[in-house]
Amino acid sequence: MNYLAHAYLSFNRPGILVGNMISDFVKGRKKYDYPEKIQHGIRLHREIDNFTDTHFVTKEAKEIFRPAYRLYAGSFIDVVYDHFLALDENEFTDKSLKAFTINTYNLLDQDTDHFPEKFSMMYPYMKAHNWLYNYRYREGVQKSLGGLVRRSKYLSESDTAYVLFTDHYDLLKQLYHLFFPEVKAMAVSWLKQLDA
């Protein structure tokens, strides 16, 4: 899952949200440098990623991108899942997605001292261009795919990924709708165990 899903699956818990959003920028034992709730968010992020990467639906979705992008196929699927989450009427209306993104940025703004350097550099762009909301649009997906390529060491273009996304749009949407209720239930269950 990408930023929108990780934010949403934090369920408005501030520390969990911060950890969930910064996890990809926190390596190894560095996670223990953070307060407990942020550590829990980092762990939740990794649980979500593992669940997503090993799920049979995601494996099927990856096959659309794998011939062109090999090991990076999963990263493209993460962006695709965020697009369909932004449009998922079971989770958001247009109005509630806008409200959710504003609330998410407000919560993150209260904890910027805990941002790793690379996330701290990226976050102003995320907020200014409202990445979380703009996953709703195909243009937002196109920009996100391009950003993914710019941040990678071994990719040179995202045009093929965008063509694959549009050519297989209906199938990818079906796969998202099979998958998302399960990852949401997993995250809810994980947080309940944390609270027990």
Description of the structure:
There is one protein chain. With 196 residues, the protein is an all-alpha fold. The protein has one domain. 74% of the residues lie in helices and 0% in strands. The protein has eleven helices and no strands. It has helices at residues 3-8, 14-22, 36-54, 56-69, 73-87, 94-109, 117-128, 131-134, 138-151, 159-167, 169-195. Helix 2 packs across helix 3 and helix 4 (56-69) crosses helix 5. The radius of gyration is 16 Å and the shape is globular.
Q: List the domain count as a whole number.
A: 1
Radius of gyration: 16 Å
Distance from N terminus to C terminus (CA atoms, Å) equals 26 Å
Sequence stretches where pLDDT stays below 50 over 5 or more residues: none
**Could you tell me the strand content as a percent range?**
under 5%
What is the average per-residue confidence, as pLDDT, rounded to a whole number? 95
Give a short account of the largest sheet. none
Give the helix/strand class.
mainly alpha
Find the count of extended strands (DSSP E, 2+ residues): 0
Query: Helical stretch count?
Result: 11
Q: Give the % helix.
A: over 70%
Brief digest:
The chain has about 200 residues and is mostly helical. The chain has helices at about 5-10, 15-20, 35-55, 55-70, 75-85, 95-110, 115-130, 130-135, 140-150, 160-165, 170-195. It has one domain.
